[in-house]
Amino acid sequence: MSTYAQELIATAAAMVAPGKGILAMDESKATCDRRFEKLGIPTTEERRRTYRELILTTPDLAKYISGAILFDETIRQSTQAGIPFVRVMQEAGMIPGIKVDLGAQDLAGCEGEKVTEGLDGLRDRIAEYYQMGARFAKWRAVIAIDTNIPSETCLVANAHALARYAAICQAGGLVPMVEPEVLIDGEHSIDRCYEVTERTLQIVFEQLRLNRVEFDKMILKPSMVISGENCRIQASVEQVAEMTVRCLRNNVPVTVPGIAFLSGGQSNERATAHLNTIHTQFGSQCPWAITFSYARAIQQPALDYWHGDDANIPIAQQLLSHRVKLNGAASIGQYTSEMERESVGV
After folding, report:
1. Whole-model pTM?
2. CB-based contact 239:190 (threshold 8 Å)
């Protein structure tokens, strides 16, 4: 048994506590800069730091957020007053997490497919992050759907990397978030998405078993089973919820403590509605805790309003607080579309 066994079990349970989700704010420097450029915000480390401080110091954030995934730059930063972000989170009762993959690169021999890199040196990086206060990590694999993809080569390569990462995390004291994202890009139907998601999960858990990853000490961060964004026929909220739960029930071991969905390019409202419907219609069928780990579907309204102007921070924080409140409600099946229209001071 791992030196960290009890700590890992306790951390995993706390990450998916009822009514709370995990905030993904682990955008790489390049991704964050692209979002800033669209809004005319200077792409400097100080502006990124200010934006991350805006998020982490939002009042009552910990009421609906159990933990946040940070980027390497962010976990080393502090507030303007000099308080390390990790300490801000710990004192608020949120668990610091860290993105440890180094991004997706072209998969040799497989046109149009990617494999995520970052296993080299991972053990040492995890040891450093643990010392800095991180208690969970994230690694994202990206699976594209097209006429002849994904290939088995792509699925196995990404699943093997996810499993090696997860095993190294557990040995180093971090709960691994295992994120096999089936991309929403494309014209594929929800049935095709189901087929790909099912095969992806089968291979991921096969590799996790082979690499002796302990399922009770990890969190799964999957995409929902959903129509491609350019598909002519878009599945209903109810259909997405039903097919997502069916796929998970058929492929995810009951010993996994929690599933925290990524939003994957869904609109803010749609991501929240899907999560809520999973709970209201199928919650009793789910042996795992079900919650969210959204990025843009939580951050975007706040980023758009802040726009790089610090005078806008108070209302930007209200917008962020509103979205986490709605997703917190959805994570226990208590969200309604009327809640979207609650006043947030704008």
Report:
1. 0.96
2. yes
